[in-house]
Structures are given as C-alpha cells and as structure tokens.
Design a protein that fits this description.
Blueprint lengths: L2 H7 E4 L5 H11 L5 E4 L1 H7 L2 H8 L3 E8 L3 H12 L5 E5 L4 H18 L5 E5 L7 H6 L7 H14 L4 E3 L2 H11 L4 E4 L18 H7 L3 E4 L1 H4 L4 H13 L2
Parallel strand pairs: 1-2, 1-8, 2-3, 3-4, 4-5, 5-6, 6-7, 7-8
Helix pairs in contact: 5-6, 8-9, 9-10, 10-12
Bound molecules: orotidine-5'-monophosphate.
The site of orotidine-5'-monophosphate (OMP) has 18 residues, from strand 3, strand 8 and helix 11.
Length: 242
C-alpha cells in the first residue's frame, strides 16, 4: 500500500477541549491523516463553531457523537448534524432498526434539501473498551462479543447504513458478511509495544488493516505523543508495512 492510500484510512481523534489545541493538531497532522474525528469532548466544549472552523481548513470530519435515543429524537438531531457538512457521523446500533433507519432517512432528506453530499452514517457496535467478561457480566449479553458485533453490523447494513465502528477483532467476519464496500472503522489501535489503557479489544495498525478495516481511528497514541506528526508517520509506516 502506498503512503497516500494509508493516509486516507487514518482518522485522528481530536480528543481535546479547546479550539486552539484542535486547530494546532490539525495543522501539524494534515499531511498524515485523511480525516479528523470530533468527539464529545471537543463538540461539547466548543459547539458547532469548531466544525465550521475545521472545515474552513479543508479537512474531512467524522463527527462522533454516538447518537442513541428514541427514533424521533435521533432523526431530529441527525437533521441538525447533517447541516454541519461532516463526512461521516455515528449512531449506536443498540438503538435498533427503527432508530437507525430514522437517522439515515432524515440525513438523506436534509442532504437532498441542502444540495450537500450525504454524510456516511455508521453504527457503533460493541465499544472497544468492553471485553468479553464485561460484555457478559456487566452488560448482560450471552455469547461472544464478536457474534453481537456481527449481528449488529448485518442489521446496520440491512437498514442501509454505510458501515460500522467495531474493533479489528471482528473486522474480518464483518468484511466477509457485509461485502467489500461496507465501511469498517476500527478504534482501539495501538502501535506495537504500547499500552491499551481503557481500551480492551486492541490491535496494531497492521493487524487492523489486514483484518479488513477500511479506516483506523487513533487518538492518544498520536495526540498525546511528544511529537504527534512523528507518531502519525510511524503509524502510517506500520500500515504500509503489510
Ligand atoms: O466511535 C468511536 O469513535 C469509538 C468507538 C469505540 O468502540 N471505541 C473508541 O475508542 N471510539 C473512539 O475512538 C477514539 C480512540 O481513542 P484512543 O484510545 O485514544 O486511540 C476515542 O475518541 C473514542 O471515543
């Protein structure tokens, strides 16, 4: 894989609480990442203004607010988020079929109304911070995590969603069942030899790609590194090594 192709697959999580930090990271990391993720911390502290600021810098954005509510509420929230012009956003698969369909439909309608290209809609499956024990004992699900992730991926695809957020542990099975065009965004990426912290289902960049991930989300291994650009470059090197 060429480095420019790997770059398109790397999403850097801007998990910071100020516009200044976020914009500084984007300026340093733009050469190395195809997308930037705005999550709850940055969005809740800076609001929609930060999305406009970042878009003005010409970067593609993944708005990660993990919508999970009744279908009407999610549909209305989706309508508002669609106006921000992001490249992708996510909802929880656990919200169910009607909620996922409502999100997609209101996103389609709003995009058409505004003449914008529709953002990709992704379903978050089982969070990468959940291990098998917590999945069974705390969340009360029976069976393997992978079975639930795959079942939710199939449900998301049936609802017309563009893809899922899952760990790379499940990426191979999702790729086989959901086809070559289904987006599989994998967080929980840790370069070889680094600690997982709160992440439980972790893999290296090379393993995630080999498993079938279409995009890798990386936060702390890049943004908390002494030299974020060097850390991003190191991750791209691991990605193209396969
Ligand atoms: O939807 C997400 O982006 C997400 C889903 C998931 O299952 N696990 C997960 O870690 N994420 C996000 O991916 C990022 C991972 O950050 P690091 O663990 O610092 O690399 C964070 O911003 C999380 O909010």
């Amino acid at each position: 894989m060429h480095i420019s192709e790997a770059r398109e697959k790397l999403i850097v999580a801007l998990d910071v609480d100020s516009a200044e930090q976020a914009l500084k990271l984007v300026e340093r990391l733009k050469p190395w990442a195809g997308l930037f993720k705005v999550g709850m911390e940055l969005f809740y502290s800076q609001g929609p203004v930060i999305i406009n600021e970042l878009r003005r810098r010409g970067v593609k954005l993944f708005l990660d607010l993990k919508l999970h509510d009744i279908p009407n509420t999610v549909a209305r929230a989706t309508r508002v988020l669609t106006r921000l012009g992001v490249a992708m956003f996510n909802v929880h698969a656990a919200g169910g079929r009607t909620m996922m369909r409502a999100a997609l439909e209101s996103c389609q309608e709003e995009s058409a109304k505004l003449g914008l290209s529709r953002p990709l809609v992704l379903a978050v499956t089982v969070l990468t911070s959940i291990d098998q024990l917590a999945f069974n004992q705390e969340l009360g699900f029976s069976g393997p995590v992978a079975d639930k992730v795959v079942a939710w991926a199939l449900l998301a695809r049936e609802c017309g969603l563009d893809g899922v957020v899952a760990s790379a542990y499940e990426a191979g099975a999702i790729r086989r069942l959901c086809g070559p065009d289904f987006i599989i965004v994998t967080p929980g990426i840790r370069p070889s030899g680094t600690a997982g912290g709160d992440q439980k289902r972790i893999v290296t960049p090379a393993v995630a790609l080999a498993a079938g991930a279409s995009h890798l989300v990386v936060g702390r291994p890049i943004i908390a590194a002494p030299d974020p650009a060097k850390a991003a470059r190191f991750i791209l090197d691991e990605m193209i090594a396969i």
